[in-house]
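Human:
If only I could read backbone structure tokens as easily as an amino acid sequence. I am handing you a single protein, as its sequence and its fold in token form. I hope you can help me see how the letters and the tokens relate. Thank you; the sequence and its tokens follow:
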Amino acid sequence: ISEMPASDGDWDSGVSLQDAESCRAFVPGQELELSPRHEQAKQLLQRARMKARTNPLRASH
């Protein structure tokens, strides 16, 4: 019986963290903090796409 509450607590904490992340994106005050991360993510995505174009065999999997 003691194992169930522990697993539920971990699951709830994971969901709450995801909710907090999603809420932060919509808070105008914290957009300034997230913008640099978004820029990095965009650059990483662009690099990954370029690599996929240059190395199609590697990106196939």
Summary: Residues 25 and 32 are 10 Å apart (CA to CA). The longest helix spans residues 28-54.
